[in-house]
Amino acid sequence: MTPNLAIADSSAQVIYFLNPSSPGSIQTFPILQPGTSGAFAYPTGVSVSDAGMVYYETVVEGGSGFHAFFKLNTATGAIKDYGLDGPDSSVDGFPLDTEAPSIGPRKKDSS
């Protein structure tokens, strides 16, 4: 079985989905955008299951406090918002790295 492939294109604000068994059938999915004027979401991290579910994280420019973790059903195009805010990328610098299981959750300095 050949695994599916998902590609996050941050500049186009879309996710491409490809089934290598059928390379001519590339699907393009726009990602959810914040409902705030001047704020834009960019996909940065993707993971895809054998069933065609794409899990992705976004970085938002022009705002804060937006949800950042989603699941895309490539069969229906439906997007599930997990209701979780993303990491403060300007501080952490590592999308999808809000907790490191080997060291536990990160704590921000309160000073």
Explain what you see.
It is a single chain. By secondary structure, the chain is mainly beta. It has one domain (5-87). It contains one helix and nine strands. Strand 5 and strand 6 (69-73) form a beta hairpin. The longest helix has 4 residues, at 89-92. The chain is elongated. Mean pLDDT is 77; it is low at 89-107.
Total strands: the figure is: 9
**Number of helical segments?**
1
Provide the gyration radius in Å: 15 Å
Class computed from helices, strands and strand pairing: mainly beta
Shape: elongated
Specify the helix fraction band.
under 10%
Describe the strand arrangement of the main beta sheet, using strand numbers.
4-5-6-7
Q: What is the count of structural domains?
A: 1
Arithmetic mean of pLDDT: 77
- Give the termini separation: 52 Å
The H-and-E topology, N to C, reads as EEEEEEEHEE
Biggest sheet statistics: 4 strands, antiparallel
Instruction: State the low-pLDDT regions, or none.
Output: 89-107
- Tell me the fraction of residues in β-strands, as a range: 35-45%
Please name the defining characteristics of this protein.
40% strand, 111 residues, 1 helix, 9 strands, 4% helix, elongated, four-stranded antiparallel sheet, mainly beta
